[in-house]
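Record 1 of the preview.
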Amino acid sequence: MNETPYPLHTALSLAASGMPVLPLRRGKVPFGNCTACADNACGGRPNMKTPGPCRCPAPCHAWAAATTQPAVIVSAEWAAAWRQAVCVAYHPGGAGLTAVDLDDADAIDWARTALPATRTVPTTRGEHWVYRGAMASRNAVRPGVDIKSTMAYARWLGPGTGALAALPDAVRALAVKEPSPAPRASQTLPAPLRGGQGECPHRTAAFLERGVAMAEQRITEAPSAVHATVYRTFLAVLSTHGRCGCLTGTHVTRLFTAAQTKGESLRHCTEAWTNARNRLGL
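->
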C-alpha cells in the first residue's frame, strides 16, 4: 500500500493510458530540483505560470514534471530518480480527473452521504474518490478532506473499484468554501499593504513576482519540517516586501495555497504568517 514494487514499469503503463506520472522518493514526496532549477531559477515549467519555459530534462518542479512521454520517463535524466523512487504519483488534473482524498473513517462516512458514488481507491488511512473532470486543488476543505486535481499530485495506489462518475457540483463547491470564518478573514492579511506605495520599490514588479514564485517553490519542495519551512519562507517574503506595500491578497493566497497543498492547515498558515509579522514588527 505504501510503496510501488516496480515504479518505472507502473509509470510507463499509466503513461500509456494518458496519465501524467512522476516518481516519488522516500517520504512519498517529489524529488527536489536540480542545481539549474534550484529556487525556480530556470523560470519554471510552462504550466507553473512562471516566466519562461524550463528546458531541464530532469524530474524537477514537483507535479509540473508529470509527463505521459515514455522517452522522458526512461531518459537518463530520470534514471537516478527511478532508482531511488518508492512509488509513483500522477497529476489528476492533467488526466482530466479529480481525487477527493478522504483521510479517515469520519471523512469516508461524510462522503457516503454527501457525494455521489464513483471509483474508490483504498489509501493507507482512508480512500480516494476519483471523479471524471478537473478543478482547482485545495486542502482541508473540511475535516479530513482534501481535493487533488490541477497543480497537485496524488499517489498511484491502484485502479480502484467502481465506475468513474462525472465531477459533481458538490465537490466543486468545496473548493470555494472556507473551512471556518476565522481563517478566511486572516487569509486576506491587509497589514503588509498599509502605508505602501502600491508597487515594489526594490526593483520592478518582476522582482516581486519572482520572489513569490521562489517562495512557492521552496515550500513545495520541502522534504520535511514543513511547519518550519513555511514559517521561514513567510518571514523571508515579509522581510523583503512586507513594508513596501507591494504584497496583495493574491500574493498571500498563493503562498497559503502552496503551504496547504503541502499539508498545512489554514490555522497553521495563519499562525506562521502572524508570527513572522510579529517578529518583523509589522
